[in-house]
Specification:
alpha/beta, Rossmann fold, 7 helices, binds S-adenosylmethionine
């Protein structure tokens, strides 16, 4: 599968990059026109205890999504302890929450902070928020470059929240899913907004080779 970030090492007029860009645009157009078809069923997650009040200024993950993410992260760690990987950490709110829910596990936050939603300002906020959290490791690189670093690591939980188009979510989801331990879980944010139709389509496709664990508006969790 082509890494959308790696393809950028070719010039903009390189035929491989031109063809991939055309494929990426067409894929999102198809995702938008078939948005309803790619919807996964919602699950009943019941009333949840709010573990910690969400810091909504520095994340788009809302309180309900944070609680559902925390609930399933805690559950998977009980039966299948292992590392946690976050693709797209931004200001580190979700990173910290996952590190608090699983204090005995390492959380690898992979984020290059080179644009595409993350800047040096966001990196500074990530560092300020998480400097004192011992079980967080930041890898300043894009998703595809982080794969080799963690290839031998037993991973139980992955949270994908980086670039929200079809080709990026397909690459992030598909390639990290391969590193997930059988029985582990992979979560995706922003799955129900038509602006990010490609995200929904890529998650729907991955769900065909996984089991749907949870779906609340905007968040899907699958198990391997
Ligand atoms: C939507 S934000 C993540 C929000 C975070 N999960 C939270 O709610 O607190 C998107 C982040 O993805 C990062 N990003 C963009 N492309 C990436 C890639 N290829 N690999 C990893 N992170 C990437 C950006 O730098 C940005 O910080």
């Amino acid at each position: 599968m082509i890494d959308p970030f790696a393809i950028k090492r070719h010039s903009k007029v390189d035929p491989r990059r031109v063809a991939f860009t055309a494929f990426a645009r067409l894929s999102d157009r198809v995702a938008t026109s078939r948005f309803d078809r790619y919807a996964l069923p919602l699950t009943d997650e019941g009333a949840l205890n709010q573990v910690v009040e969400s810091e909504i200024d520095d994340t788009d993950v809302n309180q309900r999504q944070m609680d559902v993410l925390s609930k399933h992260l805690a559950a998977v760690q009980q039966r299948l302890p292992g590392a946690i990987v976050e693709i797209g950490a931004y200001r580190g709110v979700t990173t910290r929450r996952m590190a608090e829910v699983a204090p005995d596990q390492q959380v690898y936050a992979i984020d290059p902070y080179i644009g595409y939603g993350g800047s040096d300002v966001d990196l500074a906020k990530f560092q300020a928020r998480n400097a004192s959290v011992a079980n967080i490791t930041h890898l300043r690189k894009p998703s595809g470059a982080g794969l080799a670093d963690l290839a031998g690591t037993p991973i139980s939980f992955i949270f994908i929240d980086a670039v929200h188009d079809y080709v990026n979510v397909r690459f992030d989801g598909g390639s990290w899913f391969k590193l997930l331990r059988p029985g582990g879980m992979i979560a995706f944010h922003d799955v129900d907004d038509i602006v990010f139709a490609g995200t929904r389509r890529a998650v729907w496709e991955l769900a065909r080779q996984a089991t749907l664990v949870a779906h609340v508006p905007g968040l899907v969790l699958l198990s391997k």
